[in-house]
Design goal:
The structure holds two protein chains of two kinds. By secondary structure, chain A is mainly alpha-helical. Chain A is about 75% helix and about 0% strand. In chain A, helix 1 runs parallel beside helix 2, helix 1 packs parallel to helix 9 and helix 8 runs antiparallel to helix 9. The longest helix of chain A is centred in the N-terminal third of the chain and has 31 residues. Chain B is elongated. Classes of the chains: A mainly alpha, B alpha+beta. At the A-B interface, helix 2, helix 5 and helix 11 of A face helix 4 of B.
Chain lengths: ~230, ~350
């Protein structure tokens, strides 16, 4: 068990974390490259940046969207808050970065971490329930949508058990192994699934806007293909 | 586009080859074998990963080109032929689609390299092979007083002929040669004991003892010639203290559970560290390598007594008189000496077991 744990938090962690960081960087680079080529090809090159920016901010902090599906929105926001803050600012995680690479930053206290962890697990279960609740969202949901939520809930629940060995029915090593392995799986899945929205969100409005622009001579080409070059519009 | 990619690929291959070649050539030069490797390995890792990935890309590209013209990315004009005749929108993958695949292979290459390469290569630290330490032997030696010299010379009595090694008085000494490489120090244990104050003085050097023991030998904790030894068993402590849930006995629940933040060993094991000891201990439960521990112990005390001079790194200016002059050549070619130099054992070093800098 200990050897397996060393392997999971050593080489496998290095590989999966590097895969996540470089994979996300790759997504950003490819998105920018594709946006540039779309812009180059577009007939209408005027981009409404202020509107796109405010739309992005509107989706980043979706307070005015809350009214539409109040419970689901609040649960979703709580999920994101716990998901982002807990792993990055947990004192134990920061200590690992400090020991390994000499990096360090501010941390949250153990009480706050506990509250956020429980909140995240509860929110993940809430989101699963939300997806199952209505026929529309059930139909739109793919297996991976449920799978990612379950996986993240396992990472957080096992992390909670690791931090509280007194109430851990599995034992420290088993919980830690589950925690590390599932977290590694999440790292791999970040650039490969919709989790990549963590870096791609700022681009989505721009992609949606530029992606639907026709080339400058598209109209004439359509007319030519239909044999209606000289017809009045 | 293709020629540009080819150029970049060759640049990567060239850089990788030279990055690998330089330390290899350095390794052939026996006078400076390790420093080059330690300082460049992180770059080598990245360059090798980059080179491998780019070669993979080109191989993939060629395979795709062989498969048919549809995947060709030679030029936009060529792909326009497969554009929709009505909208002239490209139906084939845009040029970046190829990059999507190629960049993915780069990402996988780097991740694989980071997983497969050992941590000492990545961190640039040289982690030596294990070389377990053997117990010091009690041998017959002769003492020769050298006029003007700060220390009297000890010489090993050859056992085979039963004769004496020198013309002075005979005594029993400890022959300290942890890794049995023939480079040894003859240590007048009784002499030190007598000048320090007999039995009560053990604690001055034997700074950390096992339960009830008053003079635990050096090699029990400093068990490897150059590597650190973890003398603390976490597993044993967990089972002794009551298994799961006993963490709070040593760890403060409000802080991350590390060696640094845990309760000090001496909190429970009061007799472990005698108050009268001269030696300083480093991070809790981590014993430095045998060679550096003994060097530090001897040099520190001898320096205080004004017997020996040390340089700014705490390194003795001469190996003589502790190591006999006849062994100097052997010392400089000893693998332990190379390792001690390579991992800069005498400079403030980072403890691998705890990640803490020793002060």
């Amino acid at each position: 068990m200990e050897t397996l744990l060393e392997w999971a938090r050593g080489p496998i962690f290095r590989a999966t974390f590097a895969f996540m960081l470089l994979g996300l960087l790759r997504h950003v680079a490819l998105t920018i490259a594709n946006l540039r080529s779309a812009h180059k090809r577009a007939g209408d090159k005027a981009v409404p940046y202020p509107q796109l920016f405010s739309a992005t901010i509107g989706w980043l902090f979706p307070f005015n969207k809350i009214r539409e599906r109040a419970v689901y929105s609040v649960v979703s926001i709580a999920f994101h808050v716990g998901l982002i803050i807990t792993p990055i600012f947990l004192a134990g995680h920061v200590e690992l970065w400090r020991a390994g690479l000499g990096l360090g930053w501010v941390t949250i206290g153990p009480r706050a971490a506990d509250v956020l962890t429980v909140l995240t697990v509860a929110a993940a279960l809430g989101l699963i329930a939300g997806r199952l609740a209505t026929r529309e969202s059930r139909t739109l949901s793919r297996p991976i949508d449920f799978g990612l939520l379950v996986l993240i809930a396992i990472v957080f629940a096992s992390g909670f058990l690791v931090a509280h060995p007194a109430i851990d029915p599995l034992g420290y090593s088993a919980s830690m192994l589950i925690h590390v392995l599932t977290a590694n799986l999440v790292f791999v899945l970040v650039p490969l699934t919709k989790l990549s929205h963590c870096v791609l969100l700022p681009f989505t409005q721009l992609v949606a806007d530029l992606g639907w622009r026709f080339p400058a001579d598209a109209g004439e080409a359509v007319a030519a293909a239909l044999g209606k070059e000289n017809d009045p519009l | 586009m293709r020629s540009k990619l080819k150029l970049i690929a060759w640049l990567f291959v060239g850089a990788t080859a030279s990055a690998v070649a330089v330390p290899l050539i350095g390794a052939l030069d026996a006078t400076r074998p390790i420093a080059l490797i330690t300082e460049n390995t992180t770059w080598i890792v990245l360059l090798v990963a980059g080179g491998v990935a780019l070669i993979t890309l080109l191989a993939l590209r060629d395979a795709e080109r062989a498969a048919g013209p549809r995947t060709s990315v030679a030029s936009i004009d060529a792909t326009l032929e497969i554009a929709d005749p009505v909208s002239r929108v490209l139906l084939a993958a845009p040029w970046s689609a190829d990059h999507r695949r190629y960049s993915l292979s780069f990402v996988c290459g780097v991740a694989l390299a980071l997983a497969l390469l050992p941590i000492d290569v990545l961190s640039g630290d040289r982690i030596p092979e294990r070389s377990p330490v053997g117990i010091a032997r009690t041998v017959l030696a002769t003492r020769t007083e050298v006029p003007g010299a700060p220390l009297s010379g000890l010489e090993l009595v050859a056992q085979a002929d039963g004769g004496t090694g020198g013309s002075g008085s005979t005594l029993t000494a400890l022959m300290i040669d942890g890794d049995r490489d023939g480079v040894y120090v003859l240590f007048d244990h009784r002499g030190h004991q007598a000048s320090y104050g007999d039995v009560d003085s053990c604690a001055r050097c034997h700074h950390s003892n096992k339960g009830l023991d008053r003079a635990t030998p050096c090699h029990e904790c400093h068990a490897d010639m150059v590597m650190e030894t973890d003398v603390f068993s976490h597993t044993t402590h967990i089972s002794e203290l009551g298994g799961q849930g006993s963490c709070a006995g040593c760890h403060d629940g409000g802080r991350p559970k590390t060696r640094r933040t845990a309760t000090a060993c001496t909190h429970c094991h009061a007799g472990m560290r005698p108050a009268s000891t001269d030696s300083s201990t480093t991070a809790a439960g981590v014993a430095p390598g045998y060679a550096s521990a003994l060097h530090a112990s001897c040099i520190g005390c001898h320096n205080e007594e004004g017997i020996q001079e040390v340089d700014s790194h705490g390194m003795p200016l001469t190996c003589v008189p502790c190591h006999p002059a006849s062994q100097l050549e052997q010392i400089s070619s000893s693998p332990t000496w190379e390792l001690l130099k390579a991992i800069r054992i005498l400079a403030p070093q980072r403890s691998r077991a705890t990640g803490e800098t020793e002060r």
